[in-house]
Amino acid sequence: MSVNDFLLDFAFASLFIVIGQLIRAKVPLVQKFFVPASMIAGFIALVLGNQGLNVLPFSNSIGSYPGVLIILIFAAVGMGGFSFSKTKFKSEVERVGSYFSYKVLAQAIQFAFAPLFGVLVISELFPEINYGFGFLLASGFSGGHGTAAAVGSAMAELGFTDATDIGMTCATVGILSGIFGGLFFIKIGTKRGWTKYIESFQYISGDLKTGLIKDEKNRGSMGKETVASVVLDPLAWHLALLLIASGAGFLANGWIKDAIGLDLPSYLLAFLIGMAMFLCFQKTGVGHYMDNTVISRISGTATDYLVFFGIASIKISVIVEYAIPLLLLLLFGMVLVVLTLMYFGAAMNKGSWFERSLFVWGYSTGVFAIGFILLRIVDPENKSKTLNDTALAGPLTTPFEMFAWSMAPSMLLCGQHWQFIILYIVIFAACILLNRVFKWWWLKMPLNRPAEQEF
């Protein structure tokens, strides 16, 4: 691939992302279901690309872009750092503690039971399918397109060459399920009194529908200038830091593999290096000249292009080949996320259970943005404190995710599948036990129970 191929690939991707945004802004049906612009663009490119009408001059490398972009995204997650308020945690331990265990359970239920279904059902019905197949559902649903690309790439290196396409399909179905399913549950929730901050499903702002912010007073800032632009552009400063972490993660993977033969995912190492840089910057004062909003915007941009390339590069022939086992896996995945929302969500969240559970539903089927959009609909002013508790619990749940994303491919494909599955079954059971022991179990309360602040 030449530099010109790289330029044209991203130029065409940009064209279709712009078209996707215009469609989102003008087509009511698309607005109604909150389909992201990058996803619209990806589907158009899939139809017009070499898997469809074959009229787009994409290079043969578009399938490799997601695996590279995810390194940058994970570097941004690490460099974004973390914050933890012990005082707030102690004063609101019941709400935050139960929500933390619920978030961990929402991940563990996919990490444990999707691979278990793959081992006990799919691999029995289809012996040619390996034990890593089931985890691709979790990588797509709980992880989204970025994680699906990372896990798929890791499995491909271990011999499961179709993993990325299957993971991307799971991620695409997951996001669509998150959007359509979330709106479906919101309609039911408003009718049955589960929602506490809106009375009608029609409460949706025009900005959320179209994706275009018309009123200037509603337009937020993309970040602060922390370095003088006459010396170095602030965006270049932040991008340079992220690329350093990304490149270092890639190089570290090669060094570790050559030295001891351990093939760790590059995105994991980029995350760890980004975290180390964050801690170093906090000690040396460099962190004062970093703006997390700019870091987040760069990461978000990479995510949009990753979604586009992830969908556009799906090999339809692979999906057709795995159609029946993939359909079974996706149906089982839907059972898991509905169970997480309606049973465990009601049991493990006391006040405002629906709003908090719906947010978890959103990022358990795709990305944080879907959860945020759904929460904006049912709780536009964050009265349920869901976002506050997510920020507080985030650093504590990250290790459970990172271990799964980094270790699942090798463990599931190299004979340690039962160790991995049992580990997350234990974590799943521990979350339930924790809530029962501390009496954070409210399953017997009515679903139309009071809002959070009313307890």
Describe the overall structure.
The chain is built from 19 helices and no strands. The model has no long low-confidence stretch (mean pLDDT 88). It is an all-alpha fold. The chain has one domain. Pfam families: Glt_symporter (PF03616).
| Rg from Cα | 22 Å
Query: What's the β-strand tally?
Result: 0
Order of helices and strands: HHHHHHHHHHHHHHHHHHH
**Helix-residue proportion:** over 70%
Low-confidence stretches at least 5 residues in length (pLDDT < 50)?
A: none
The number of distinct structural domains comes to: 1
Structural class: mainly alpha
Q: What distance separates the N and C termini?
A: 61 Å
Choose one word for the global shape. Answer: globular
Strand content is under 5%
Task: Please count the helical segments.
Answer: 19
Mean pLDDT value: 88
Give the biggest beta sheet. Answer: none
Characteristics:
membrane, single chain, 71% helix, 455 residues, mainly alpha
Strand and helix map with partners:
Elements (H helix, E strand, L loop, with lengths): L2 H24 L1 H5 L4 H12 L16 H15 L6 H6 L1 H33 L9 H7 L2 H14 L5 H30 L13 H5 L23 H27 L5 H19 L7 H21 L3 H6 L1 H26 L4 H12 L3 H11 L7 H28 L3 H21 L18
Helix pairs in contact: 1-3, 1-13, 3-13, 4-8, 4-11, 4-12, 4-13, 6-7, 6-15, 6-16, 6-18, 6-19, 7-8, 7-9, 8-9, 8-18, 9-16, 9-17, 11-12, 15-16, 16-17, 18-19
